[in-house]
Amino acid sequence: MKKYLALVICLFPLCISAQNLAVAKYKGGGDWYGNPTSLPNLIAFCNANINTQMNSTPETVEIGSTDIFQYPLVHMTGHGNVFFSPEDAENLQNYLISGGFLHIDDNYGIRPYITKELKKVFPDLELVEIPKTHEIFNIAYKFPEGLPKIHEHDGKRPQAFGIFYENRLVLLFTYESDLGDGWEDPEVHNDPQDVREKALKMGANIVKYAFEH
User: Fold this and answer.
1) 85 close to 7: Cβ distance less than 8 angstroms
2) 14, 79, 100, 213: which could join 109 in a potential S-S bond, CB 3.0 to 4.6 Å?
3) Pairing between strand 101-106 and 168-175?
4) Could you tell me the residue ranges of all domains in the chain?
């Protein structure tokens, strides 16, 4: 098993040569499939504005599958329970330390579940708040105040948390913002155009950061 994982890690840069993203399918009963129009809209925005050439429809990849190594960026969302088996946690850790990037967007209610499961992935690392001066808030579009507020949720300020491995941001958890809702078709949530634009621009920053790091 260790030899196989070493081979996967060795080949990882070749596996993710294509610029595409995927949505994470996870165990536990949470709605990993939420916001069905969000990623296609984000992909279209990025292809039109930051010179990406992503496939218009995102793939679905299971956390425990080696298929995850094909994608430089995996997006995860939901409201409810998340569960990582030991195999899932090991696979996700190998993906992240080998150059992959995971964006977890709280669609409202995922935080207590995902923070517990992430301890299985990186037992010795903590989610830390990312300062608004970080490159991810400036790489394509400027967000001098950090993560934008898209949906109300509990009325708290939006926060971006991250896990850093060897000084590289490998995981982003966006909380009290709900970028994914802002990426959805306009009629889904009836968000004003300026709010949707902020969400899409922040999403483009995430995509560009993940692809370039």
Assistant:
1) no
2) 79
3) parallel
4) 16-212
What is the average pLDDT across 18-43? Answer: 92
Which tokens hold the place of 75? 């997006």
Distance, in Å, from the CA atom of 174 to the CA atom of 129, rounded to the nearest integer, reads 10
Say which residue, 6 or 198, is predicted with more confidence: 198
- Does residue 11 carry a pLDDT above 80? no
Domain at 16-212: CATH code: 3.40.50.12140
Long-range contacts at 49-52 (CB < 8 A, ≥ 24 apart): 49/140, 49/204, 50/140, 50/204, 50/207, 50/208, 52/19, 52/207, 52/208, 52/211
**Residue 185 is encoded by which pair of tokens?**
């078709």
Residue 55 pLDDT > 50: yes
Q: Mean per-residue pLDDT for 6-12?
A: 42
**Count of beta carbons in the 10 Å neighbourhood of residue 182:** 28
Q: With contact defined as beta carbons under 8 Å apart, do 181 and 115 qualify?
A: no
Phi and psi torsions of 190, nearest 5°: 55, 35
